[in-house]
């Protein structure tokens, strides 16, 4: 679940849903790549003000539900995430580099949408979990925070 991020001059809850396809939509995401993506996301959380609420994979693309701070634009967030994950995948899974002859793991583009705090987070999380074919989808990571206090909006 998301949480309020308190800074010296602001409090925010900014969440984004990103979809990042592998280069050429190649089927390169297997169990080994899943593990590398998961571990890398956990390390990114430690180093940057980027929190992965949920990460899910299909065989040719990855869904990220990310919370961050206002000083990071969506473009800056996904650029950082994609570059670090690509370096780690190529370093730890050399067979992937052979399938992607251009030396790039991701396509240049991506999909991004903002996620509202009241209601949409659960809907997007459910979508990320159920997208693609269920037998191929793998939930790699989900934030394990305590549920936040309910608000008046939860009852409307």
Automatic annotation (TrEMBL):
InterPro entries: Transposase_17 (IPR002686), Transposase_17_sf (IPR036515). GO terms for molecular function: DNA binding; transposase activity. SUPFAM superfamilies: Transposase IS200-like (SSF143422). One of its GO terms (biological process) is DNA transposition. Pfam families: Y1_Tnp. This is Transposase IS200-like domain-containing protein. SMART domains: Y1_Tnp. It comes from the Bacteria. Residues 11-131 form the Transposase IS200-like domain.
